[in-house]
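Researcher: We're teaching a course module on how sequence relates to structure. For the next exercise, students receive a sequence and then see the predicted structure as tokens, so they can try to spot secondary structure elements on their own. Here is the exercise chain.
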Amino acid sequence: LHEAELFGYMFKTLFTCGLEIDLASRVWDVLVFEGDTACIRTAVAILGKLESKLYGTREEVLGVLRGKWDVGREDEFMLAVRSAGKDDKRAVLGKR
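Model: And here is the predicted structure for the students to work with:
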């Protein structure tokens, strides 16, 4: 997949394409207060949560990326967003 196929849908819609509206609103709050680096951390967190579903044909992967994303519980996902890019892999995956 090209970068535009992987991330374009996410970034063009500011994550409303796949996240429930309440969760997208929380992500937007982080974007407002922390700036554009939060976009990258959010995308990394989403890909981390969807990782097991991203192995397949090009069409299957695009189907996952363009559908509704099951990123787990809201608080765990927001922890993953805040922790994305950190050294502790457990925090990125929302595990304790």
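Model: If you want an answer key for the exercise: Helices lie at 3-12, 21-34, 37-50, 58-65, 74-83, 89-92. The mean pLDDT is 89.
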